[in-house]
Specification:
CATH class of the largest domain: Mainly Beta
Shape: elongated
Number of strands: 33
Helix content: 10-25%
Radius of gyration: 26 Å
CATH architecture of the largest domain: 3 Solenoid
Number of helices: 7
Structural class: alpha/beta
């Protein structure tokens, strides 16, 4: 069996077979420098012993073939050689982890004990997959993401009518953290994706259902639950145990109190909670985000017009057309102009 190639991509691996290059010398392997590339030689029986069985060793070599690494091997005691490109990478893979040969792992990826990474998964550079976590088929993780203990990313939708054979997935932006026992379900639409943006923080036990679209920089406290098709903006804080009904919209920079029961859309920049109640503007959050006093006053005027003056929504929006608004206030008003499937929370 022989394969050649010249890819400089990092090599996804299975089992404990691949370690840092410096450790091969400690194990007595011969290292040669040829044309600026390191060439490692070892015996087939050593590979098989390292990953417990020859079948797993063949999977590892299949990874090399897929990603263009030069290699040559024969069965029995014949030597096996793999030629690695001069690309710095460190992979920390626990020997009990299962990684499908068709998965793609970037550099500096860490995979903990008993973790599962299925086929058709792409994991970006610097990601951490903790013990017992599962990253299932169709998932793409951006760089420097973290999947906590026993979390499952890419599980099937909780929809009784869903055909599990339908291919779909989850797309996650960079530096998003899923703590322990988080569940993110893949789309219920063929070829569709559940979208999770960048730098989100999902605390323990949180959930995002199928076809959710989550923006950037959100914090979901423990056991906050998003049902299917929820649209969550950016820079929101959702309190612990809060539940959000399917198909609702949640605007930017909202704060929702713990144990809130939300079945209607939540406008941007507000504090909401209880059962579909809006309590006022998230003034402290807006100030911390750098909104000027003038901008906050402009937003307060828009809030008062829509939610406090006792006008019908149609009347309030008509009145708003005659006034001058800054961009955040326009965003607030546009939320009420947009289509709502569930209605909008009020005071």
């Amino acid at each position: 069996m022989g394969v050649t190639g010249s890819s400089t991509d990092s090599l996804p691996v299975s089992g404990s077979f691949f370690r840092e290059p410096s450790k091969w010398d400690e194990d007595g392997a011969e290292t040669l420098e040829q044309s600026g590339e390191a060439r490692f030689k070892f015996r087939w029986k050593d590979v098989a012993a390292s990953v417990r069985e020859q079948r797993n060793a063949l999977c590892v070599l299949a990874h090399a073939q897929t990603y263009g690494y030069s290699m040559a091997c024969d069965h029995g005691d014949s030597p096996v050689s793999i030629q690695l490109p001069q690309v710095p990478f460190i992979l920390s893979i626990h020997p009990t982890a299962f990684i499908d040969p068709a998965a793609e792992l970037g550099s500096d990826v860490s995979v903990g004990p008993f973790a599962v990474i299925e086929a058709n998964v792409r994991i970006g550079n610097g990601c951490k997959i903790h013990g017992h976590a599962q990253v299932l088929s169709g998932v793409t993780l951006g760089e420097e993401c973290e999947v906590g203990h026993a979390s499952i990313i890419g599980g099937a939708p909780q929809d009784l009518g869903f055909d599990q054979a339908i291919p779909s997935g989850v797309q996650v932006g960079t530096k998003t953290i899923f703590r322990e026992h988080v569940t993110i379900h893949r789309s219920s639409v063929e070829g569709g994706k559940t979208i999770i943006g960048e730098r989100n923080f999902f605390m323990g036990g949180t959930h995002a259902g199928h076809d959710c679209v989550v923006g950037d920089g959100n914090v979901l406290a423990n056991h906050a639950l998003l049902a299917g098709h929820v649209q969550l903006g950016s820079h929101c804080f959702l309190g612990g145990g809060a539940g959000f009904h399917q198909f609702i919209r949640i605007g930017d920079r909202c704060m929702v109190k713990g144990l809130g029961r939300m079945s209607q859309d939540i406008p941007p920049y507000v504090i909401a909670g209880e059962c579909n109640e809006v309590f006022g503007l998230n003034s402290i959050g807006l100030r911390r985000a750098g909104f000027s006093a003038e901008t906050r006053l402009n937003l307060k005027a828009a809030f008062k017009l829509i939610l406090s003056d006792g006008l019908l929504l149609k009347e309030a929006l008509a009145a708003a057309e005659t006034m001058q608004w800054e961009a955040p206030a326009e965003t607030f008003l546009d939320f009420f102009r947009g289509e709502s499937k569930k209605g909008i929370c009020s005071r």
